[in-house]
Amino acid sequence: MDIKAEEMEKDIMTIVDEDGSTEEVEVLFGFEFKDNQKEYVVYTKNEEDDNGNVTIYVSNVNRETGEPKLLGVEDENEWNRIKDVLRELAKDE
User: Fold this and answer.
1) What sign does the CA torsion over 52, 81, 22, 11 have?
2) pLDDT confidence of residue 93
3) Are 45 and 89 in contact (CB under 8 A)?
4) Which of 20, 36, 41, 56 is deepest in the core (most CB within 10 A)?
5) What pTM was computed for the model?
6) Does the structure show a pLDDT above 60 at 26?
7) Mean pLDDT, to the nearest integer, of 63-89?
8) Separation between Cα atoms, residue 2 and residue 80, nearest integer Å
9) 8 pLDDT exceeds 60?
10) In terms of Cα–Cα distance, which of 21, 36, 17, 16 is closest to 78?
């Protein structure tokens, strides 16, 4: 798999929603696909689902405007690649 994963120390990031509200989240790690140079961040709000699993979120990081913006992932092929990365990293844990 052609990715670069960066382990980060426990890091808190503030997200600003479209309506201007802010929320602090814990950054778990970031990675980039070398072939298309798209960067992603994986983070959590430390919410648990009904089975006790912590919910994680993945966003594409756009740095073109100077201030990083988090964008959703809408392309199915891109999502499949991201899921492969998450599965691979989960195996290593």
Assistant:
1) positive
2) 65
3) no
4) 41
5) 0.80
6) yes
7) 91
8) 14
9) no
10) 36
Query: DSSP string spanning 50-69?
Result: TTSPEEEEEEEEE-TTSS-E
- Cα dihedral 52, 12, 61, 73, rounded to 10, equals 20
Alpha carbons 35 and 44: distance in angstroms, whole number: 26
Q: What local confidence, expressed as pLDDT, does residue 66 receive?
A: 82
For residue 23, the Cα-to-chain-centroid distance in whole angstroms is 15
- Strand order of the β-sheet with 22-33 is 3-16, 22-33, 38-48, 54-62, 69-71
Q: For residues 32 and 42, is the Cβ–Cβ distance under 8 A?
A: no
When pLDDT is averaged across residues 9-22 and rounded to a whole number, the result is 86
Place of tokens 């966003």: 59
